[in-house]
Design a protein that fits this description.
The protein has one domain (23-186). 53% of the residues lie in helices and 17% in strands. It contains five helices and four strands, in the order H-H-E-H-E-E-H-H-E. Helix 1 packs antiparallel against helix 2 (53-73) and helix 2 (53-73) packs across helix 5 (154-163). The longest helix is centred in the N-terminal third of the chain and has 50 residues, at 2-51.
Length: 187
């Protein structure tokens, strides 16, 4: 009987630690993802307001990777964040691992089935390695560069096609699933 209680207690402690660890991972990931998201969106909106869609398309081409690298360099060792999509404009945003491809396909299928996605999805890769996904959805402002031919800015899209001849990140509608931010956390 005592042995059974000891095992039960150990199991409860383990589950409690896992829940606490999962909460900590989510908080770290949320903070990192928000920082990258705010940086990219803020710079795009600032450029759009000051210079318009065509200049902003070029700005994204020249600056998105640099801004992502700069933000990532501000995180503690073991944390990095990126954007991924199955319909990429920049080939560097295509998922780099089978688990990322599988996650995006799974999320996309859930959206198509009408299911609401959680704000953050934690995937445990190994004992001390986690990936946390935050789905990205299209809003009205995104249509200037990512919408269909009716909604895209024609001049901006000429710049996009010149810089990304194999662009697949178009023909979206408001609230379409676009991809995800991924926080990669190694403890």
């Amino acid at each position: 009987m005592k042995r059974g209680l000891v095992v039960l207690y150990a199991l409860m402690v383990t589950l409690s630690l896992q829940a606490s660890n999962n909460k900590e991972i989510k908080m770290e990931a949320k903070t990192a993802i928000m920082k990258l998201g705010k940086t990219l969106k803020g710079e795009v909106m600032k450029n759009m307001k000051a210079h318009g869609p065509n200049s902003t398309a070029y700005f994204c081409y020249k600056s998105a990777k640099r801004l992502t690298d700069k933000v990532n360099s501000s995180y503690p060792k073991g944390i990095s964040v990126k954007r991924i999509s199955l319909k990429v404009r920049n080939k560097n945003n295509y998922p780099k691992s089978p688990d990322e491809i599988k996650m995006l396909k799974n999320l996309e299928a859930k959206v198509k089935a009408g299911k609401k996605l959680p704000k953050l999805i934690v995937e445990k890769i190994s004992a001390n390695h986690y990936k946390v996904y935050k789905p990205i959805f299209i809003n009205k402002k995104c249509l200037v560069c990512h919408g269909d031919a009716k909604h895209r800015n024609k001049e901006a899209y000429k710049t996009i096609k010149a810089k990304y001849p194999h662009d697949k990140a178009i023909n979206y509608k408001v609230e379409d699933f676009r991809g995800a931010f991924v926080a990669d956390i190694v403890k």
